[in-house]
Amino acid sequence: MADAALFEFLHTEMVAELWAHDPDPSPGGQKMSLSVLEGMGFRVGQALGERLPRETLAFREELDVLKFLCKDLWVAVFQKQMDSLRTNHQGTYVLQDNSFPLLVRMASGQQYLEEAPKFLAFTCGLLRGALSTLGIKSLVTASVAALPACKFQVVIQKS
């Protein structure tokens, strides 16, 4: 429990710090802050991926890797499994978390919906970094239609 609270507070402070000192409140400046958060998440995801057991690194199918992320990695970071994983079997996967821990505190009102993307950028990077360590190049985006649920779309980039 303490680890989850610590991570949540640290994440909230990272987001607040990037937005508090952003001299450019225009969409371009916000995009830069999102990019910084995504980059931090990518490096953390890579580090987590490097600490995985050797047998984990032997996945043969992309789907098996995504299942691992939805179950084991999500539990390690958020103490819960992802709620659903869908695929079109052509390299696009949609991961859904109906109660995403970093959005739960914001779920009290729809007025926070437009603030949600900045709380998802780090996690997009985290997923992309973990996939990178497992040998999969990807593009990860997130969307929120209703708080605290969110969807992460993972598009595998073929070499």
Spatial order of the strands in the main sheet?
1-2-4-3
Low-confidence stretches: none
Strand percentage: 5-15%
The helix content, as a percent range, equals 40-55%
pLDDT averaged residue by residue: 86
Structural class per helix/strand content? alpha+beta
Organism: Camelus bactrianus (Bactrian camel)
Protein name: Trafficking protein particle complex subunit 6A
GO cellular component, one term: TRAPP complex
Keywords: Endoplasmic reticulum, ER-Golgi transport, Golgi apparatus, Phosphoprotein, Transport
Characterise the protein shown here:
The protein has 159 residues and is an alpha+beta fold. It has four helices and four strands; from the N terminus they run H-H-H-E-E-H-E-E. A four-stranded antiparallel beta sheet has the order 1-2-4-3, with helices on one face. Helix 1 (2-20) packs antiparallel against helix 2 and helix 2 packs parallel to helix 4 (121-133). The longest helix has 24 residues, at 27-50. The mean pLDDT is 86.
Brief sketch in words of this structure:
The chain has 159 residues and is of the alpha+beta class. 46% of the residues lie in helices and 14% in strands.
Sequence-ordered SSE layout with sheet pairings:
Elements: H1 2-20, H2 27-50, H3 62-78, E1 84-87, E2 92-97, H4 121-133, E3 138-143, E4 150-156
Antiparallel strand pairs: 1-2, 2-4, 3-4
